[in-house]
Design a protein that fits this description.
FAD-bd_PCMH; Uridine Diphospho-n-acetylenolpyruvylglucosamine Reductase, domain 2; FAD-bd_PCMH-like_sf; FAD-binding oxidoreductase; alpha/beta; FAD binding; Oxid_FAD_bind_N; binds flavin-adenine dinucleotide
Amino acid sequence: MGSAPETQALVQELRRAVRGEVRFDAVSRALYSTDASIYEIEPIGVILPRDADDVQAALEATRRAGVPVLPRGGGTSLAGQAVGRAVVMDFSKYMNRIVEVHAEAGWARVQPGVVRSDLAAALAPHKMIFGPETSTANRATIGGMIGNNSSGSRSIVYGKTIDSVRSVQALLAGGEAVTFGPVEPEEVAVRARREDAEGVLYRRIPEIVERTRDEVGRRFPKVHRRVGGYNLDAFPPGGPVNLAKLIVG
Ligand SMILES: Cc1cc2nc3c(=O)[nH]c(=O)nc-3n(C[C@H](O)[C@H](O)[C@H](O)COP(=O)(O)OP(=O)(O)OC[C@H]3O[C@@H](n4cnc5c(N)ncnc54)[C@H](O)[C@@H]3O)c2cc1C
């Protein structure tokens, strides 16, 4: 971020637009300058959004100011994923609700700041589990697990996070709200004709997947957990397209 007046203008704009906490003081910036890695980078500031509207408003203000944002859950990442010179958006304090458990259909809808152990406790009475269990399960959030495609001690049997994510509600960089889940090929063709950002994604990504399919099949490492790059191997030929699988990891 450039000069202090620019930062002040951003802080004022964020305080006006965001209902949650907007913290740009030195102590908060110091607290968020580390995760579980060896890195230490002081963020520009910190936001603790209360809801999706807050996230939308914060993204708009930071986009206008040309400032990067960095989402954060429990901050237990080992490779510096949760630190950076950005406005950190901490989802763990307020956006941590388990919205709905649909036991018959076998899914739950949660906010990104839900801690993995809390989800496990809520699912247990329904005899359901969320497959991957990181060693940090009592503080790692589902948003962070999605960001890292986390796995754990039982992942060989129950899979990695990508295997447990059916659908993701997200905001694109331009602020467009999207819901990514399984979309049948006929519907992909319909969406690909749209003029908006989602239309671009449904045009370009299947095209990239098909163009690279052979090479990805040949050259992606044959290991159980691979988090380097996009999951271009998560699109079965002729099957539904689920862009949520690209957001994971
Ligand atoms: C002692 C120790 C043991 C560990 N054991 C394991 C293990 O067994 N298995 C394993 O896979 N990992 C393990 N980890 C790594 C880490 O705990 C996991 O990857 C964990 O799932 C990260 O969750 P978090 O909430 O802390 O995410 P964070 O570190 O806060 O964030 C992780 C990534 O997700 C992004 N993110 C977070 N929230 C959102 C959001 N709402 N929207 C978009 N992006 C978001 C962040 O920007 C970042 O890139 C371990 C770490 C430690 C320190």
